[in-house]
Design a protein that fits this description.
Elements lengths: L1 H19 L5 H14 L13 H13 L4 H8 L3 H4 L4 H8 L1 H18 L5 H14 L1 H16 L6 H21 L3 H15 L1 H13 L1 H21 L4 E5 L4 H11 L3 H5 L2 E7 L5 H13 L1 E2 L5 E2 L12 E6 L5 E8 H9 L1 H7 L3 H20 L7 H13 L2 E5 L5 E5 L4 H8 L1 H5 L1 E6 L2 E3 L11 E5 L16 H32 L6 H10 L5 H9 L5 H13 L9 H18 L3 E2 L8 E3 L11 E5 L5 E5 L3 H9 L4 E2 L1 E2 L8 E10 L4 H10 L5 E10 L2 E10 L2 H12 L4 E6 L3
The structure holds manganese (II) ion.
The site of manganese (II) ion has 4 residues, from loops.
Length: 727
Amino acid sequence: MRDGIYKKKLEDLLAVCRKNLRSVNEDLIRRSFQFSLEAHKNNVRASGDPFFNHPYEVALVVAKEIPLDDVSVASALMHDVVEDTEFTIKDIRHEFGDTIADIVDGATKISDIFRSHEVTQAENYRKMLLSMVNDIRVMLLKFADRLHNMRTLEYLPDEKQIRLAKETLDIYAPFAHRFGLAKIKWELEDLSFKYLHPVEYEEIAHKLKSKRKERESYIKKFIQPIEKRMKEEGMKFEMEGRPKHFFSIFNKMKARSKPFDEIYDLFAVRAILDTENSNDCFTAYGVLTSIYMPIPERFKNYISVPKKNGYQSIHATVIGPDGRMVEVQIRTRAMHEVAEKGVAAHWKYKENLNTLDEELENWITWVRDIFDHAEDETPAKQLMESFKLTLYQDEIYLFTPKGELRILPKGATPVDFAYAVHSNIGDHCLSAKVNGKIVSLNHQLRSGDQIEIITSKNQTPKPDWEKFVITHKAKQHIRKWVKDEERKEVNSGKEIWEKRSKKMKLHINDDDLLEILREMKFSDLKDFFIRIHRADIDPDKIVKEIDQKMKHPPAEGIKDEKTEGLFNKFLTTARNITGGITLFGSHDKFLHSYAKCCNPIPGDEIVGFVTKGDGIKIHLKSCHNFISMALNEPQRVVEVGWPPTDAGEYSAAIYLRGEDHSGMLNDITHSISSYQNTNIRAVKIDVQSQIFEGTIIISVKNKEHLERIIEKLRKIDGIIKADRMIE
Ligand code: MN
């Protein structure tokens, strides 16, 4: 019984292959069918079906809807073997050779990418693309796989449905569009829509159904006279109402905020001609417009100028019976296949596979351009947005002075055009003439424009071009040029600097140099070298300045940066806690600051020295700086003091360092507060690789009090250092 079912399945698949593919290696299909059936014999799908049904259905989609070749069908049959069974890629390679193994491997890897959720979506795009570049069949297989998974999505849990539907809408549908797989794209979108907006989906489905009869009879009425005349002309063709897609109706309702009826009032009809001669399409258009009045501005000729994904067709809108607008598409059977199956149809219809390879190659180069040099610093989200935009972008048709066609995205400027013609022309693009008139380089081009680019040897890319170009090729070249240029400037500046500093016998390593330059407000070495190169600054002067700084370090003495940071924090805290100092015993506010040479701490004996313009500087009474100044100008010395605290206490800071272990902080605070109820006012501890370092600010009665506490702290297990912090 079971065998009977599978025998029929295999024969059905073979029949579809024979019908749709150029040639079929039937043995290959049979063997992969058996291999997959055997491998998956123990697996079951969420629906309860035997798992094998999934790869089988995917293979059918490939053979029917993206009919490329027998290798793709065989790969589709085995695409989940590595992922879901005990068989490995090695087994497939051994049995079926490298090509099929590589395709299956590629498809498996793409699934892996999606499974790791940390990867950003843009990254997914990039990986998808790279795998596709190796073999386009990997991607086609993934489309078929996703399509079948979406068709059977109802069996999965809700959250998974939503995630897959979103991913399909974000990634698979735009890609399918670019591949020209219109039919698959529509189905993916409609299925995603169904799970993402179930209420709206049902509403549209219901309305479509209720209007079906009315609609069908109208289209019949519309087609009748055309059919009659076409027959008289001796043309073979097929004409039918074009299915409307739920998701596009939904989008139109949203975008135009119009009710369903108005959107759906627009009827759509398609004529497919059984002819090899594309001129027949224009004859058919003639017939159509002799019966119904056309709306001229809605006429589009994609036959003479195909879209970038290969799409060809005539689009027209006419006024049908009862004055209703009807959209009509006219195309040959071959064009129709391309419109629905994209790349895959090319494969079937092209006589010469070499030119197909060339076309595919162009296409792949185009997509690869977007990613290869996608700057790493571009935020993932932005990259994805710009990529999606590129996938859906409208195209404009432009011409060189010789009449050669270039297709660019809408919004392209002369600079984009110049780069599209050749990167050299882009790099040296000076100005542009559009239809004979000079325009600015950021001018937005329009379909049909003829563009002449005027170049100059001396012209180079400008950084602000990046603001208005929209193609990736242009962006990428401009960025590269700007970076190269910057590198040159840095190197040249560096060379000048090294020569000058050597000549003036300045010896300094890059780290020290950077530190001094930061003090001098340069952001980094690059900035410094560029400004030397541009002669914004004089290197000799800087050498002298640095030399001075190195010979005469600042008076307050340079300390270990970490300690200094902590110390400054302590000063700020301690001085705030104490509440400012008094002048001649009174607590009025007056402008004062603390001298950096002696850094007074609350509790120290201090004096004030009146400065010119900087208020009163507070020094230690014992400060050498102060003593020498006071000797010269005793009239400037004023009496200051710390405000008396309640219990006659003053703040002191203790610097601590030790090995970190659990309970350490507790030991420290305990030994402080257990001694005469000493008050802890602030604690700041940093731990780095098992070593902690910190300051503790406490209130003490006097020096002895402080010293007792320090003694206690030093006895704690693990403490390496405990000192009073004074400058
Ligand atoms: Mn699968």
